[in-house]
Design brief:
Blueprint (H helix, E strand, L loop, with lengths): L8 H30 L2 H8 L1 H4 L11 H12 L2 E7 L7 E6 L8 E5 L6 E4 L5 H13 L4 H26 L7 H4 L11 H27 L5 H11 L25 H11 L4 E6 L8 E7 L9 E5 L6 E5 L6 H7 L1 H6 L5 H30 L10
Antiparallel strand pairs: 1-2, 1-5, 2-3, 3-4, 5-6, 6-7, 7-8
Helix pairs in contact: 1-5, 1-6, 1-13, 6-8, 8-13, 9-11
Length: 385
């Protein structure tokens, strides 16, 4: 005769996983689904409008950036605040245009440097769809003050679900690899209930680490206390560029600022490798010029080196070299690409897309497991005469 077991730690973990999963299922489904659909937004934009992102016929010489800036400002009736120059001869220049003080983000315009033609702007056929997905992912399309904490709390629950899920994945008694094997494969020839269970259990196990990475980085947008806490742990401020105190150029009366062409030469001198160069346009005579460069051959596509230089002399005022940073500083500076999957380009995006898709399925398969258990007929107690 078996002894009736009390309320064990494993039973507590199981109950926590079950009820927290039920409580957050709807929110997590929509957050994960919108994240899945948003992963390849840049690639979809390029596919829908290839003529905007790729120059078919290139000329013998490119126009000076100053000419492109002047023409773009005239046609858009705005002010260029930044120019991006690609190493690839078939890629257009990207000019960030602001149309007023309230337009903080500005609009990106793609310009052919050979014939000075504006090929288009950042708004494409799928822009509204992806903007909706972005709002869904961050705020569930609610007002930011309402949606942000809801998504944040659901993300915290997702962290708990991932950890408790791993605990439950391990069998009660581990007797070598054979006892772990059922949790590593999906039994395709079993009935649909067992397949659903395996989809939840096995796929959850394989994706757990990346799901936790997504969750831990995503919380930086939800809670200030979390962002500050993570900054303390990493030893470097997360989103440091926001509100960062920038150096100033030394104002010299009647002095003429260096041209964008000269700043690009300076960029190649300071950072002698091939890659995309981004140069900021100073808004006033006191502003420094920020030069950012992304190495073309780097596996980490999100890493960059940055110099702040005097707009009149080109003297270096501040430098930020990625290779010189400590591990914590590198992680803090790349929270966004780590969260979105941009960090290693297409390679990491494919992995993130698959993981996000699986994460979207977990609330569904989990709820089905719960419903199946509710429907399971209770065993009749044997009456001893």
């Amino acid at each position: 005769m078996k002894k009736k077991q009390g309320y064990t730690f494993r039973k507590f973990i199981n109950d926590a996983h079950l009820w927290l999963g039920i409580a957050s299922a709807i929110v997590l489904f929509f957050v994960c689904l919108s994240g899945t659909l948003y992963v390849f937004h840049a690639e979809v934009d390029t596919w829908l409008e290839p003529q905007k992102f790729h120059i078919e016929k290139i000329g013998t010489a490119k126009a000076d950036p100053e000419i492109l800036i002047a023409k773009t400002q005239k046609e858009t009736k705005g002010k260029v605040t930044r120019i991006t120059i690609h190493e690839d001869a078939y890629q257009p220049y990207e000019l960030q245009v602001s149309k007023g003080k309230e337009d903080k983000r500005g609009e990106t315009y793609y310009v052919n440097p050979y014939n000075q033609e504006i090929l288009g702007n950042g708004k494409g056929p799928a822009s509204e769809f992806f903007r909706f997905m972005f709002k869904m992912h961050r705020w569930l399309t609610f007002d930011e003050a309402i949606g942000r904490p809801i998504v944040g709390i659901a993300t915290l629950i997702f962290v708990v679900l991932s950890i408790t899920g791993i605990v439950l994945w391990f069998p009660k008694k581990i007797k070598g690899f054979k006892s772990l094997k059922p949790g590593l494969v999906i039994k395709r020839k079993a009935n649909w209930k067992r397949i659903n269970h395996d989809l939840h259990n096995t796929l959850g196990f394989y994706t757990c680490i990346i799901i936790l990475i997504m969750a831990f980085t995503g919380l930086c947008w939800s809670f200030e206390w979390y962002k500050d806490g993570l900054s303390s742990v990493l030893g470097s401020k997360v989103f440091a560029q926001r509100g960062e105190k920038k150096p100033h150029s030394t104002v010299v009366p009647n002095a003429k600022a260096l041209t964008i062409s000269e700043f690009r030469i300076l960029a190649d001198s300071l950072l002698p490798y091939k890659g995309k160069t981004v140069i900021s346009i100073p808004k006033s005579v006191e502003d420094a010029v920020e030069i950012t460069k992304y190495e073309a051959d780097a596996f980490n596509e999100a890493s960059n080196d940055r110099y702040s230089v005097d707009q009149f002399t080109g003297a270096v005022l501040k430098k930020d070299i990625f290779a010189d940073k400590k591990l914590g500083e590198k992680i803090a500076s790349q929270i966004k690409p780590i969260h979105t999957g941009d960090i290693f380009g297409l390679f990491s995006k494919i992995i993130y897309f698959i993981v996000c898709l699986i994460a979207t399925s977990l609330p569904i398969t989990g709820i089905i497991i719960w419903i199946n258990k509710l429907r399971k007929p209770k065993k009749k107690k044997k009456v001893i005469v």
